[in-house]
Recover the amino acids of this structure.
């Protein structure tokens, strides 16, 4: 399992709009066959800090995700809501087993 | 959902031993009623960097976890395997809905 953590720092005053757009994208992403999970986390001590936890069944599924309409709409919608450019880190999911994600 | 990311940097030569102990702890932790998930992630470009992703149904469940035998065995087993003290960050899981974790 390829797990990508996407870190987003949202501008003050844009948290609600970012949340709305991101939940819409998360719901659509979860319907992609190559996506096992698409969690949205908000940092407890900094509500402007978010992580998108994207679990892909293969690296190719991560490529396919970026070709979807819902991803592109999200990317364009939130572009001006970010305080700094977003960053990401890739992980290999070693637990649970592949089929349990 | 309270989601805790625990960051661990493992000493060179201790990766296999850390993985074994951590998978044992993850399996037992997942059997706790207050734990919805207990993922183990290994950083793609740095195999000595791990994140434990612990999803608790309530803050009290995080307290109960630390009282379990399997947590305490893991804590003591891996204490000398870490290159630096581990750190953690707390998040609120805002997607998916509580029952979907």
């Amino acid at each position: 399992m390829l797990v990508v953590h996407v870190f987003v720092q949202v501008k003050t005053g844009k948290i609600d709009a970012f949340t709305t757009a991101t939940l819409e994208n998360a719901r659509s992403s979860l319907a992609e066959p190559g996506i096992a999970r698409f969690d949205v986390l908000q940092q407890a001590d900094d509500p402007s800090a978010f992580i998108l936890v994207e679990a892909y069944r293969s690296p190719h599924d991560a490529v396919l995700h970026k070709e979807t309409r819902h991803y592109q709409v999200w990317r364009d919608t939130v572009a001006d809501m970010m305080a700094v450019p977003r960053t990401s880190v890739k992980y290999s999911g070693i637990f649970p087993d592949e089929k349990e994600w």
In short: The interface with chain B takes residues 2-3, 5, 19, 22-23, 26-27, 30, 38-45, 51, 53, 89-96 of chain A (CB under 8 Å). The mean pLDDT of chain A is 97. The first helix of chain A runs from residue 15 to 30.
